[in-house]
């Protein structure tokens, strides 16, 4: 990292991954074109869970071609217009993406993050969506976090 003074700790990276609202998944097509898409996700057990429509779309096509991905989460930000600056925190994860070994567990992790007050209903929702939804797991190979804080 060029600005080592802005490097955040591994525990900061985990906190940002656990609390982030969404992330940006970057994949590469078979003709080497980058593709980045914002997605909902859940971070638990040291991996990132995502979901998408089963078997369709550019994201799935790219993942099928190349399992190397980059995933970025931007945490808290605060623009300081009078200082021509921004306070921020972010995480970049590089790793491999694979079909989830336990899709139900991945989807439940997403439900716990985004719909914690509706977990009982989530089980039925997950069961009903099983034929239409695919779950994937990003296995991090490298995680870095960076931030600019007040001070």
TrEMBL record:
Pfam families: Pyridox_ox_2 (PF12900). Transmembrane segments: none annotated. It comes from the Bacteria. InterPro entries: Pyridox_Oxase-rel, Split_barrel_FMN-bd. PANTHER family: 5-NITROIMIDAZOLE ANTIBIOTICS RESISTANCE PROTEIN, NIMA-FAMILY-RELATED PROTEIN-RELATED (PTHR34071), FLAVIN-NUCLEOTIDE-BINDING PROTEIN (PTHR34071:SF2). This is Pyridoxamine 5'-phosphate oxidase family protein.
